[in-house]
Amino acid sequence: MRPNFPLAFPLAILAGAVTTFVVAILMVPIMGEDREKTFAGVTTAASLMAWYGAIICTVYVLLIGIGVAVYVRNTRRVPSLRTAIIVGVIAAGIPFLVAPLVQRNPATKFDIVLLPVLAITSAISAAWMFWRVALRGRTATALVAIAVLAMLAAPLRANDLVGRDLVIPFAGRSPGAFGSVWRTDVIITNTGSKFANIGLGFHDERGFVPAITTLRPGQTLVLADAVSFIFKREVSHGWLRISSADPNTAITASARVYNTAGSAGEFGSLVPAMPLTTLSQHAVLAALSGVSGNRTNIGITNPNEVDDASVELKLLDAVGDVRAQSLVTVKRGSVLLLSDVFASLGVEPLDDARLDVSSTLPVYAFASVVNISGDSDLIIGAAPDHVVNGILAPQCAAPAELALALLPSAGYNIHFKAPTTIDRIAELEAKYGFSALIIFPTGTFANVATMRLTDEAVAGLRCESDLRFVQQNGHGTTTPPP
Asked: pLDDT tens digits, residue range 157-212?
Protein backbone atom coordinates (compact mmCIF):
# COMPACT_ATOMS: atom_id res chain seq x y z
CA MET A 1 0.00 0.00 0.00
CA ARG A 2 1.37 3.40 -1.00
CA PRO A 3 0.99 6.38 1.35
CA ASN A 4 -1.52 8.91 0.04
CA PHE A 5 -1.00 12.35 1.58
CA PRO A 6 -3.40 14.25 -0.74
CA LEU A 7 -6.31 11.95 0.18
CA ALA A 8 -5.37 11.83 3.86
CA PHE A 9 -6.07 15.51 4.48
CA PRO A 10 -9.78 15.61 3.44
CA LEU A 11 -10.51 12.16 4.93
CA ALA A 12 -9.01 13.14 8.29
CA ILE A 13 -11.07 16.35 8.37
CA LEU A 14 -14.21 14.41 7.44
CA ALA A 15 -13.52 11.80 10.13
CA GLY A 16 -13.16 14.50 12.78
CA ALA A 17 -16.39 16.24 11.75
CA VAL A 18 -18.47 13.03 11.62
CA THR A 19 -17.09 11.93 15.00
CA THR A 20 -18.03 15.31 16.47
CA PHE A 21 -21.59 14.90 15.18
CA VAL A 22 -22.00 11.35 16.55
CA VAL A 23 -20.54 12.19 19.99
CA ALA A 24 -22.62 15.39 20.19
CA ILE A 25 -25.79 13.41 19.40
CA LEU A 26 -25.01 11.20 22.41
CA MET A 27 -24.04 13.98 24.83
CA VAL A 28 -26.35 16.92 24.04
CA PRO A 29 -29.47 15.16 25.40
CA ILE A 30 -27.61 14.73 28.71
CA MET A 31 -25.78 18.05 28.99
CA GLY A 32 -27.67 20.43 26.68
CA GLU A 33 -30.25 23.06 27.56
CA ASP A 34 -33.94 22.15 27.70
CA ARG A 35 -34.62 23.54 24.22
CA GLU A 36 -31.86 21.30 22.85
CA LYS A 37 -33.29 18.11 24.33
CA THR A 38 -35.82 17.59 21.56
CA PHE A 39 -35.06 15.67 18.38
CA ALA A 40 -34.88 18.91 16.41
CA GLY A 41 -32.74 20.58 19.07
CA VAL A 42 -30.28 17.69 19.33
CA THR A 43 -29.74 17.36 15.58
CA THR A 44 -29.43 21.11 15.10
CA ALA A 45 -26.89 21.46 17.94
CA ALA A 46 -24.93 18.41 16.75
CA SER A 47 -24.85 19.71 13.17
CA LEU A 48 -23.57 23.09 14.31
CA MET A 49 -20.88 21.47 16.45
CA ALA A 50 -19.87 19.22 13.54
CA TRP A 51 -19.51 22.29 11.32
CA TYR A 52 -17.24 24.03 13.81
CA GLY A 53 -15.44 20.73 14.37
CA ALA A 54 -14.70 20.51 10.65
CA ILE A 55 -13.24 24.04 10.66
CA ILE A 56 -11.03 23.32 13.69
CA CYS A 57 -9.97 19.93 12.27
CA THR A 58 -9.01 21.64 9.01
CA VAL A 59 -6.60 23.96 10.82
CA TYR A 60 -5.05 21.20 12.96
CA VAL A 61 -4.82 18.64 10.14
CA LEU A 62 -3.17 21.12 7.79
CA LEU A 63 -0.65 22.36 10.36
CA ILE A 64 0.25 19.01 11.90
CA GLY A 65 -0.15 17.06 8.65
CA ILE A 66 2.23 19.29 6.73
CA GLY A 67 4.72 19.00 9.59
CA VAL A 68 4.44 15.20 9.52
CA ALA A 69 4.89 15.14 5.73
CA VAL A 70 8.08 17.22 6.02
CA TYR A 71 9.32 15.02 8.89
CA VAL A 72 8.76 11.78 6.97
CA ARG A 73 10.32 13.13 3.78
CA ASN A 74 13.47 14.33 5.58
CA THR A 75 14.01 11.46 8.03
CA ARG A 76 12.46 8.53 6.11
CA ARG A 77 10.89 7.50 9.39
CA VAL A 78 7.17 6.86 9.98
CA PRO A 79 5.72 7.78 13.41
CA SER A 80 3.74 5.07 15.18
CA LEU A 81 -0.06 5.20 15.55
CA ARG A 82 0.41 5.76 19.28
CA THR A 83 2.55 8.84 18.59
CA ALA A 84 0.00 10.17 16.08
CA ILE A 85 -2.87 9.86 18.56
CA ILE A 86 -0.88 11.35 21.45
CA VAL A 87 0.11 14.36 19.31
CA GLY A 88 -3.50 14.82 18.18
CA VAL A 89 -4.90 14.59 21.71
CA ILE A 90 -2.33 17.01 23.14
CA ALA A 91 -2.72 19.54 20.32
CA ALA A 92 -6.53 19.48 20.33
CA GLY A 93 -7.31 18.65 23.96
CA ILE A 94 -5.05 20.96 25.96
CA PRO A 95 -6.50 24.27 24.62
CA PHE A 96 -10.05 23.19 25.48
CA LEU A 97 -9.02 21.82 28.90
CA VAL A 98 -7.17 25.02 29.84
CA ALA A 99 -9.74 27.49 28.45
CA PRO A 100 -12.30 27.07 31.31
CA LEU A 101 -9.55 27.82 33.84
CA VAL A 102 -8.59 31.17 32.34
CA GLN A 103 -11.84 32.53 30.92
CA ARG A 104 -13.45 35.48 32.73
CA ASN A 105 -17.05 34.21 32.65
CA PRO A 106 -18.07 31.31 34.92
CA ALA A 107 -17.35 28.00 33.19
CA THR A 108 -20.35 25.83 32.34
CA LYS A 109 -20.55 22.06 31.94
CA PHE A 110 -20.45 22.75 28.20
CA ASP A 111 -17.03 24.40 28.63
CA ILE A 112 -15.68 21.95 31.20
CA VAL A 113 -16.89 18.62 29.80
CA LEU A 114 -18.57 18.71 26.40
CA LEU A 115 -16.04 20.77 24.42
CA PRO A 116 -12.96 18.87 25.69
CA VAL A 117 -14.65 15.50 25.01
CA LEU A 118 -15.60 16.56 21.49
CA ALA A 119 -12.09 17.91 20.83
CA ILE A 120 -10.33 14.79 22.09
CA THR A 121 -12.59 12.23 20.36
CA SER A 122 -12.48 14.06 17.03
CA ALA A 123 -8.68 14.43 17.37
CA ILE A 124 -8.30 10.67 17.91
CA SER A 125 -10.49 9.97 14.87
CA ALA A 126 -8.67 12.46 12.65
CA ALA A 127 -5.22 11.27 13.78
CA TRP A 128 -6.11 7.62 13.17
CA MET A 129 -7.49 8.44 9.72
CA PHE A 130 -4.45 10.52 8.73
CA TRP A 131 -2.03 7.83 9.96
CA ARG A 132 -3.88 5.04 8.11
CA VAL A 133 -4.06 6.86 4.78
CA ALA A 134 -1.00 9.14 4.71
CA LEU A 135 1.52 6.92 6.45
CA ARG A 136 0.26 3.38 5.86
CA GLY A 137 -1.75 3.75 2.65
CA ARG A 138 -4.74 1.88 4.10
CA THR A 139 -7.27 3.82 2.06
CA ALA A 140 -9.87 1.05 1.84
CA THR A 141 -10.14 0.46 5.58
CA ALA A 142 -10.24 4.20 6.19
CA LEU A 143 -13.16 4.59 3.79
CA VAL A 144 -14.97 1.74 5.53
CA ALA A 145 -14.52 3.51 8.86
CA ILE A 146 -15.98 6.72 7.39
CA ALA A 147 -18.95 4.74 6.08
CA VAL A 148 -19.56 3.16 9.50
CA LEU A 149 -19.50 6.58 11.19
CA ALA A 150 -21.85 7.96 8.56
CA MET A 151 -24.28 5.08 9.08
CA LEU A 152 -24.26 5.77 12.81
CA ALA A 153 -25.16 9.38 12.12
CA ALA A 154 -27.64 8.80 9.30
CA PRO A 155 -30.51 7.31 11.32
CA LEU A 156 -30.28 10.26 13.67
CA ARG A 157 -30.84 12.65 10.77
CA ALA A 158 -33.25 10.52 8.75
CA ASN A 159 -36.47 11.22 10.62
CA ASP A 160 -37.56 14.60 9.34
CA LEU A 161 -41.18 14.05 10.39
CA VAL A 162 -40.71 16.14 13.55
CA GLY A 163 -41.02 19.91 13.43
CA ARG A 164 -43.09 22.90 14.55
CA ASP A 165 -45.01 23.52 11.29
CA LEU A 166 -46.43 20.39 9.65
CA VAL A 167 -48.65 19.54 6.69
CA ILE A 168 -51.00 16.55 6.46
CA PRO A 169 -51.88 16.40 2.75
CA PHE A 170 -55.33 14.87 3.05
CA ALA A 171 -58.15 14.57 5.54
CA GLY A 172 -61.65 13.64 4.48
CA ARG A 173 -65.10 12.46 5.46
CA SER A 174 -67.17 11.23 2.52
CA PRO A 175 -68.55 8.21 0.66
CA GLY A 176 -66.21 6.61 -1.89
CA ALA A 177 -66.15 4.04 -4.68
CA PHE A 178 -67.69 0.56 -4.29
CA GLY A 179 -69.78 1.60 -1.28
CA SER A 180 -66.81 2.70 0.84
CA VAL A 181 -67.30 5.25 3.64
CA TRP A 182 -64.19 7.22 4.57
CA ARG A 183 -63.28 8.84 7.88
CA THR A 184 -60.13 10.53 9.24
CA ASP A 185 -58.52 10.37 12.69
CA VAL A 186 -55.72 12.85 13.48
CA ILE A 187 -52.85 11.91 15.81
CA ILE A 188 -50.52 14.56 17.28
CA THR A 189 -47.59 13.98 19.66
CA ASN A 190 -45.61 16.58 21.58
CA THR A 191 -42.08 15.15 21.56
CA GLY A 192 -40.65 18.12 23.47
CA SER A 193 -40.09 18.69 27.18
CA LYS A 194 -42.48 21.65 27.56
CA PHE A 195 -46.18 22.35 27.13
CA ALA A 196 -47.01 23.15 23.51
CA ASN A 197 -49.85 25.29 22.18
CA ILE A 198 -50.86 23.74 18.88
CA GLY A 199 -52.89 25.31 16.06
CA LEU A 200 -54.80 23.07 13.65
CA GLY A 201 -56.04 24.55 10.39
CA PHE A 202 -58.36 22.53 8.09
CA HIS A 203 -58.46 23.81 4.50
CA ASP A 204 -61.20 22.62 2.15
CA GLU A 205 -63.20 23.95 -0.81
CA ARG A 206 -65.38 25.99 1.57
CA GLY A 207 -62.50 27.78 3.29
CA PHE A 208 -60.48 27.56 6.49
CA VAL A 209 -61.54 26.11 9.86
CA PRO A 210 -59.23 26.66 12.88
CA ALA A 211 -58.86 24.77 16.13
CA ILE A 212 -56.41 25.18 19.03
CA THR A 213 -55.25 22.72 21.66
CA THR A 214 -52.49 22.35 24.25
CA LEU A 215 -50.35 19.24 24.69
CA ARG A 216 -48.38 18.28 27.76
CA PRO A 217 -44.74 17.16 27.30
CA GLY A 218 -44.80 13.72 25.69
CA GLN A 219 -48.59 13.72 25.28
CA THR A 220 -50.26 12.06 22.29
CA LEU A 221 -53.67 13.37 21.26
CA VAL A 222 -56.00 11.31 19.03
CA LEU A 223 -58.84 13.23 17.38
CA ALA A 224 -61.31 10.62 16.14
CA ASP A 225 -63.34 11.49 13.03
CA ALA A 226 -61.72 14.92 13.18
CA VAL A 227 -63.36 16.37 10.06
CA SER A 228 -66.77 16.03 11.72
CA PHE A 229 -66.12 16.38 15.44
CA ILE A 230 -63.37 19.03 15.35
CA PHE A 231 -63.97 20.94 12.12
CA LYS A 232 -67.77 20.43 11.89
CA ARG A 233 -67.82 19.22 8.27
CA GLU A 234 -70.10 16.25 7.62
CA VAL A 235 -68.99 15.71 4.01
CA SER A 236 -65.71 17.30 2.95
CA HIS A 237 -62.10 16.69 2.05
CA GLY A 238 -59.07 18.94 2.33
CA TRP A 239 -55.71 19.19 4.06
CA LEU A 240 -54.37 20.09 7.50
CA ARG A 241 -51.68 22.43 8.76
CA ILE A 242 -50.55 21.75 12.33
CA SER A 243 -48.22 24.32 13.86
CA SER A 244 -46.93 26.16 16.90
CA ALA A 245 -45.78 29.75 17.40
CA ASP A 246 -42.87 28.55 19.58
CA PRO A 247 -39.81 27.87 17.37
CA ASN A 248 -38.56 25.27 19.87
CA THR A 249 -41.72 23.16 19.66
CA ALA A 250 -41.17 19.62 18.34
CA ILE A 251 -44.31 17.81 17.28
CA THR A 252 -45.09 14.86 15.06
CA ALA A 253 -48.46 14.13 13.51
CA SER A 254 -50.30 11.83 11.15
CA ALA A 255 -53.79 11.11 9.88
CA ARG A 256 -55.45 7.71 9.77
CA VAL A 257 -57.72 7.70 6.71
CA TYR A 258 -59.90 4.57 6.75
CA ASN A 259 -62.96 2.90 5.23
CA THR A 260 -65.62 1.99 7.79
CA ALA A 261 -67.80 -0.01 5.38
CA GLY A 262 -65.49 -2.96 4.68
CA SER A 263 -67.12 -6.37 5.07
CA ALA A 264 -64.09 -7.64 7.01
CA GLY A 265 -63.67 -4.55 9.19
CA GLU A 266 -61.96 -1.20 8.80
CA PHE A 267 -59.20 -0.69 6.24
CA GLY A 268 -57.08 2.37 5.70
CA SER A 269 -53.70 4.07 5.65
CA LEU A 270 -51.63 6.23 7.98
CA VAL A 271 -50.72 9.52 6.30
CA PRO A 272 -47.62 11.11 7.88
CA ALA A 273 -47.34 14.86 8.37
CA MET A 274 -44.30 16.50 6.81
CA PRO A 275 -42.59 19.71 7.95
CA LEU A 276 -43.70 22.45 5.56
CA THR A 277 -40.12 23.30 4.65
CA THR A 278 -39.34 19.74 3.50
CA LEU A 279 -41.90 19.74 0.71
CA SER A 280 -40.41 19.47 -2.76
CA GLN A 281 -41.19 20.64 -6.28
CA HIS A 282 -40.40 17.15 -7.55
CA ALA A 283 -41.73 13.77 -6.48
CA VAL A 284 -41.80 10.20 -7.73
CA LEU A 285 -44.76 7.92 -6.98
CA ALA A 286 -43.87 4.30 -7.74
CA ALA A 287 -45.57 0.88 -7.68
CA LEU A 288 -48.91 2.20 -8.93
CA SER A 289 -51.43 -0.43 -10.06
CA GLY A 290 -54.71 -0.51 -11.91
CA VAL A 291 -54.98 -4.27 -12.53
CA SER A 292 -56.16 -7.31 -10.53
CA GLY A 293 -58.94 -5.32 -8.88
CA ASN A 294 -56.67 -2.45 -7.83
CA ARG A 295 -57.27 1.24 -8.50
CA THR A 296 -54.81 4.06 -7.87
CA ASN A 297 -55.87 7.51 -6.75
CA ILE A 298 -53.46 10.44 -6.80
CA GLY A 299 -53.41 13.49 -4.53
CA ILE A 300 -51.36 16.68 -4.84
CA THR A 301 -51.59 19.26 -2.05
CA ASN A 302 -50.51 22.85 -2.58
CA PRO A 303 -50.17 24.51 0.87
CA ASN A 304 -49.30 27.87 -0.68
CA GLU A 305 -52.22 30.16 0.14
CA VAL A 306 -51.21 32.83 -2.40
CA ASP A 307 -50.23 31.13 -5.67
CA ASP A 308 -51.59 28.29 -7.78
CA ALA A 309 -49.15 25.48 -8.63
CA SER A 310 -48.70 24.35 -12.22
CA VAL A 311 -47.89 20.63 -12.07
CA GLU A 312 -46.62 18.38 -14.85
CA LEU A 313 -47.55 14.70 -14.54
CA LYS A 314 -45.60 12.06 -16.44
CA LEU A 315 -46.81 8.43 -16.28
CA LEU A 316 -44.25 5.71 -17.01
CA ASP A 317 -44.75 1.96 -17.28
CA ALA A 318 -42.74 -0.71 -15.48
CA VAL A 319 -39.88 -0.57 -18.01
CA GLY A 320 -39.64 3.22 -17.91
CA ASP A 321 -41.44 4.14 -21.15
CA VAL A 322 -43.60 7.29 -21.00
CA ARG A 323 -47.25 6.37 -21.49
CA ALA A 324 -48.96 9.69 -20.79
CA GLN A 325 -48.27 13.30 -19.88
CA SER A 326 -50.54 16.01 -18.56
CA LEU A 327 -50.37 19.50 -17.11
CA VAL A 328 -52.71 20.27 -14.21
CA THR A 329 -53.26 23.23 -11.90
CA VAL A 330 -53.51 22.82 -8.15
CA LYS A 331 -55.32 25.85 -6.79
CA ARG A 332 -53.78 27.82 -3.95
CA GLY A 333 -54.30 26.26 -0.54
CA SER A 334 -56.06 23.19 -1.93
CA VAL A 335 -55.67 19.50 -2.69
CA LEU A 336 -56.22 18.05 -6.17
CA LEU A 337 -57.52 14.47 -6.27
CA LEU A 338 -57.35 12.29 -9.39
CA SER A 339 -59.53 9.23 -8.94
CA ASP A 340 -58.15 6.33 -11.00
CA VAL A 341 -55.01 7.94 -12.38
CA PHE A 342 -54.92 5.67 -15.44
CA ALA A 343 -58.44 6.65 -16.56
CA SER A 344 -57.72 10.29 -15.70
CA LEU A 345 -54.68 10.29 -17.99
CA GLY A 346 -56.42 8.29 -20.73
CA VAL A 347 -54.34 5.10 -20.71
CA GLU A 348 -55.12 1.44 -20.07
CA PRO A 349 -54.55 0.18 -16.53
CA LEU A 350 -50.93 -0.67 -15.77
CA ASP A 351 -49.07 -2.53 -13.04
CA ASP A 352 -45.90 -1.30 -11.30
CA ALA A 353 -46.27 2.07 -12.99
CA ARG A 354 -44.60 5.30 -11.93
CA LEU A 355 -45.79 8.89 -11.86
CA ASP A 356 -43.25 11.72 -11.96
CA VAL A 357 -44.51 14.99 -10.50
CA SER A 358 -42.87 18.34 -11.31
CA SER A 359 -44.36 21.50 -9.84
CA THR A 360 -43.69 25.22 -9.98
CA LEU A 361 -44.17 25.31 -6.17
CA PRO A 362 -43.41 22.88 -3.34
CA VAL A 363 -46.25 20.37 -3.04
CA TYR A 364 -47.07 17.19 -1.13
CA ALA A 365 -47.72 14.39 -3.65
CA PHE A 366 -49.16 11.04 -2.61
CA ALA A 367 -50.95 8.01 -4.03
CA SER A 368 -53.37 5.47 -2.63
CA VAL A 369 -53.56 2.01 -4.18
CA VAL A 370 -56.91 0.52 -3.14
CA ASN A 371 -57.86 -3.14 -3.69
CA ILE A 372 -61.33 -4.58 -4.18
CA SER A 373 -61.81 -5.15 -0.43
CA GLY A 374 -61.28 -1.46 0.37
CA ASP A 375 -57.81 -1.93 1.85
CA SER A 376 -55.25 0.62 0.66
CA ASP A 377 -51.52 1.21 0.48
CA LEU A 378 -50.28 4.78 0.80
CA ILE A 379 -47.32 5.94 -1.30
CA ILE A 380 -45.65 9.20 -0.31
CA GLY A 381 -43.89 11.08 -3.08
CA ALA A 382 -42.67 14.25 -1.38
CA ALA A 383 -38.86 14.38 -1.15
CA PRO A 384 -37.80 15.61 2.31
CA ASP A 385 -34.64 17.53 3.04
CA HIS A 386 -33.10 17.99 6.52
CA VAL A 387 -34.65 21.27 7.48
CA VAL A 388 -36.77 20.82 10.57
CA ASN A 389 -38.49 24.09 11.41
CA GLY A 390 -37.54 26.37 8.54
CA ILE A 391 -36.16 29.05 10.84
CA LEU A 392 -32.63 30.07 9.88
CA ALA A 393 -30.46 31.81 12.45
CA PRO A 394 -29.68 35.40 11.38
CA GLN A 395 -25.98 36.00 10.83
CA CYS A 396 -25.75 39.10 12.98
CA ALA A 397 -25.22 39.96 16.63
CA ALA A 398 -28.55 41.64 17.39
CA PRO A 399 -31.26 40.45 14.98
CA ALA A 400 -34.79 41.84 14.93
CA GLU A 401 -37.33 39.64 16.68
CA LEU A 402 -39.41 37.09 14.76
CA ALA A 403 -43.08 36.75 15.77
CA LEU A 404 -44.54 33.45 14.58
CA ALA A 405 -48.24 32.66 14.15
CA LEU A 406 -50.08 29.81 15.84
CA LEU A 407 -52.28 29.40 12.74
CA PRO A 408 -50.01 30.67 9.93
CA SER A 409 -51.28 32.20 6.73
CA ALA A 410 -49.46 33.68 3.76
CA GLY A 411 -46.78 36.30 4.13
CA TYR A 412 -45.14 38.49 6.74
CA ASN A 413 -45.34 42.01 8.19
CA ILE A 414 -42.09 43.94 8.39
CA HIS A 415 -42.07 46.53 11.18
CA PHE A 416 -39.56 49.38 11.16
CA LYS A 417 -38.17 51.16 14.22
CA ALA A 418 -39.07 54.54 12.76
CA PRO A 419 -41.02 55.89 9.78
CA THR A 420 -39.40 54.77 6.55
CA THR A 421 -39.50 55.71 2.86
CA ILE A 422 -40.75 54.13 -0.34
CA ASP A 423 -37.15 54.04 -1.59
CA ARG A 424 -36.05 52.07 1.47
CA ILE A 425 -38.85 49.54 0.97
CA ALA A 426 -37.94 49.26 -2.71
CA GLU A 427 -34.32 48.62 -1.70
CA LEU A 428 -35.39 45.72 0.55
CA GLU A 429 -37.69 44.34 -2.16
CA ALA A 430 -34.81 44.22 -4.63
CA LYS A 431 -32.40 42.76 -2.08
CA TYR A 432 -34.64 39.97 -0.77
CA GLY A 433 -36.90 39.30 -3.76
CA PHE A 434 -40.36 40.15 -2.42
CA SER A 435 -43.20 42.54 -3.26
CA ALA A 436 -44.78 44.76 -0.60
CA LEU A 437 -48.47 44.41 -1.40
CA ILE A 438 -49.57 46.93 1.23
CA ILE A 439 -47.56 49.90 2.47
CA PHE A 440 -49.41 51.59 5.29
CA PRO A 441 -49.80 55.39 5.12
CA THR A 442 -47.81 55.98 8.30
CA GLY A 443 -44.75 54.45 6.68
CA THR A 444 -43.98 52.51 9.84
CA PHE A 445 -44.15 49.07 8.24
CA ALA A 446 -44.79 47.17 5.02
CA ASN A 447 -47.03 44.14 4.64
CA VAL A 448 -45.28 41.49 2.58
CA ALA A 449 -48.11 39.13 1.62
CA THR A 450 -46.27 36.48 -0.33
CA MET A 451 -45.28 32.92 0.51
CA ARG A 452 -42.21 33.43 -1.65
CA LEU A 453 -40.41 35.28 1.11
CA THR A 454 -37.85 32.52 1.72
CA ASP A 455 -36.38 31.42 5.03
CA GLU A 456 -33.07 32.95 3.92
CA ALA A 457 -34.83 36.26 3.20
CA VAL A 458 -36.51 36.29 6.63
CA ALA A 459 -33.14 35.67 8.30
CA GLY A 460 -31.53 38.40 6.21
CA LEU A 461 -34.28 40.94 6.89
CA ARG A 462 -33.88 40.41 10.62
CA CYS A 463 -30.32 41.70 10.30
CA GLU A 464 -31.38 45.02 8.76
CA SER A 465 -30.57 47.63 11.41
CA ASP A 466 -33.74 49.70 10.92
CA LEU A 467 -36.15 46.80 11.47
CA ARG A 468 -37.94 46.36 14.81
CA PHE A 469 -39.40 42.89 14.16
CA VAL A 470 -40.66 40.54 11.43
CA GLN A 471 -44.16 39.20 12.02
CA GLN A 472 -45.61 36.10 10.38
CA ASN A 473 -49.19 36.57 9.20
CA GLY A 474 -51.78 34.35 10.85
CA HIS A 475 -55.47 33.66 10.92
CA GLY A 476 -56.12 36.24 13.64
CA THR A 477 -53.53 34.76 16.03
CA THR A 478 -50.21 36.55 15.51
CA THR A 479 -49.00 38.47 18.56
CA PRO A 480 -46.26 41.05 17.93
CA PRO A 481 -43.35 41.39 20.36
CA PRO A 482 -43.74 43.98 23.15
From this structure: 444 478 889 999 999 998 876 677 889 999 999 988 889 999 999 999 899 999 99
Distant-in-sequence, close-in-space partners of 17: CB < 8 Å, separation ≥ 6: 50, 51, 53, 54, 57, 122
For 200-233, write each residue's pLDDT tens digit.
Answer: 999 998 999 999 999 998 899 999 999 999 999 9
Please compute Rg for the chain using Cα positions.
27
Residue 461 carries which side chain, given as an amino acid letter? L
Which residues have C-beta within 8 Å of that of residue 28, sequence separation ≥ 6? 36, 37, 41, 42, 45, 46, 114
Compute the distance between CA of residue 69 and CA of residue 48 in angstroms, rounded to an integer: 31
pTM: 0.56
How big is the chain, counted in residues?
482
Domains of the chain: 5-158 (no CATH), 165-380 (2.60.290.11), 401-474 (3.30.70.80)
From the list 59, 58, 53, the residue with the least C-alpha distance to 120 is 53
Alpha carbon distance 72, 68 (integer Å):
6
Q: Within its chain, how far is the Cα of 363 from the centroid?
A: 14
- List, in sequence order, every residue forming a beta bridge with 297; answer none if it has no partner: 368
CA distance 88 to 127: 6
Which residue from 404, 388, 38 is spatially nearest to 199, judged by alpha carbons?
Answer: 404
Span 356-392, pLDDT tens digits: 999 999 999 999 887 776 666 777 764 534 344 567 8
Q: Which of 257, 248, 62, 42 is nearest to 164 (CA)?
A: 248
Rounded CA separation 88/82 (Å): 10
Question: What contacts 302, CB < 8 A, 6 or more positions away?
Answer: 308, 309, 330, 331, 332, 333, 334, 335, 336, 359, 361, 363
Distance from C-alpha of 150 to C-alpha of 481, rounded to nearest angstrom: 41
